[in-house]
Amino acid sequence: MSDSNPKKRGTRWDGYSNYEKVSDRYARAVDDALNAWAYIDAAHAEDAQIRAEDAAEARSLIKAAAFRLIPEMENDEDDVELYGEILDRWLGEDGFIERFESVSLTTSSPGWMHEFMLDIRRSAWEIGYLKAGRTQKEEPEDKVEAETSAMFT
Question: CB of 83 within 8 A of CB of 77?
Answer without folding.
Answer: yes
